Amino acid sequence: MTEIQLNMYHALALGAAMYALGLVLTKKIPVLSRFCIPAPLVGGLCFAVFNTILYATGTAVITFDDTLQTVFMIMFFTTVGFTVSIPLLFKSGKAVIMLLILSIVMIILQNAVGSGVMALMGKNPLFGLACGSISMIGGPGTAAGIGPDLDAAGAIGGTTVAVAAATFGLIFGSLLGGPIARKLIVKNHLRNEVVEQVTEEDADDTHFTTHSNNFVYGFLLMLFCVGVGSIVTAGLTKLFGFNFPIYIGSMLVAVAVRNVIDHFKIMEFPTAEISTMGNMFLAIFLSMALSGLKLWQLVDLALPMIVALAAEVLLMVVFSLLVVFPIMGRDYDAAMITAGFIGFGMGATSNAMANMQAVSRRYGPSPSAYFVIPMVGGLFNDFFNAAIIAFAIGLLA
């Protein structure tokens, strides 16, 4: 079979092209935007399907150098570390801390369920992590980022499994959130329906005023954390005796840098600028990672994946109804938080916001939920998930 090899610059161009394709398709196909499917996911999977057809027909297989993919991945996860403001966490109130604790519990449960199902079906438990918090709470970004660590640990095809599971989670996170919140609201008589009062608009405010110097400061801070973080990652690996994800050190250094800057008021932290860069790095890295998926590796794992993902759905439904809703207060805000929790617990923060927006159109707004969910799902959750996953990979490998 002919092998077509792309160097790292070709791969970068491919990632940009697939991201652009994804943007077009998500605008043209309403169902994609309805379920908050990210544009890089759509474009990358289009190329992966094309490559799979070439492979299945014996025509050719396209491979590429993923050097720049790794660079963009590390930069993205470094920007995640910058979001962890420890004082902000403790100042944000009891609801944020309680939901973060519930999120950490869910991370552990998702990994236990996924690994358990795979082990019972005679497969490598590491594939269970791919169907667990890596893809569920982690979403496509974490799936594409940590998948190579699963491959390196012996679960060949781990990236493909994780991204496929993340796609499943994005869809079901959107399908379940609204109906479960409505069930809770109706059953407990929490709120009467209201006239639709929320217009169709993006939940995220993507406009802000900035200065070019702020982007320079943010970029320099990120480069510093990436460089020092590589030393930290190597030190952690040597200290604990197993390989940590390549970006974990950069995340930890970014957390330290952010909180030192905040505590000593060294400068105004360029939060919006770093967030913008993070979105850019995620889009390119995700497009490149998904374009390189070898979907034919899913054939042998199809049935175990279906069973594991069905178990994850059941876990989320039971945990949301019996744990999240009661602990968060059993009121309307708790029902909205439950909808958001399902959204980011199986997909991404964008799914969570879409779920809550759909419920608020029917029953009215919940300012508390709109504050708590982005704080946990968008700021703190990824950091704790990455740390727990790193420990679990080392333990199972």
Strand line-up in the sheet with most strands: 1-2
Mean pLDDT: 87
**Count of helices?**
16
Distance between the termini: 33 Å
Query: Shape from CA axes?
Result: globular
- Main structural class: mainly alpha
Helical content (DSSP H or I, runs of 4+)? over 70%
Largest sheet: 2 strands, parallel
How many DSSP E strands?
A: 2
Share of residues in strands = under 5%
Order of helices and strands: EHHHEHHHHHHHHHHHHH
Short description:
The chain is mainly alpha-helical. Helix content is 75%, strand content 3%. Helix 4 packs antiparallel against helix 12 and helix 14 runs parallel beside helix 16.
Structural write-up:
This protein has 16 helices and two strands. With about 400 residues, it is an all-alpha fold.
Write the layout of secondary structure elements.
Elements: E1 2-6, H1 8-28, H2 30-34, H3 39-56, E2 60-64, H4 67-82, H5 86-91, H6 94-120, H7 125-130, H8 139-152, H9 158-187, H10 212-240, H11 248-264, H12 271-291, H13 302-327, H14 332-346, H15 349-363, H16 367-396
Parallel strand pairs: 1-2
Helix pairs in contact: 1-3, 1-12, 3-12, 4-10, 4-11, 4-12, 6-13, 6-16, 8-9, 8-12, 9-13, 9-14, 9-15, 10-11, 10-12, 13-14, 14-15, 14-16, 15-16
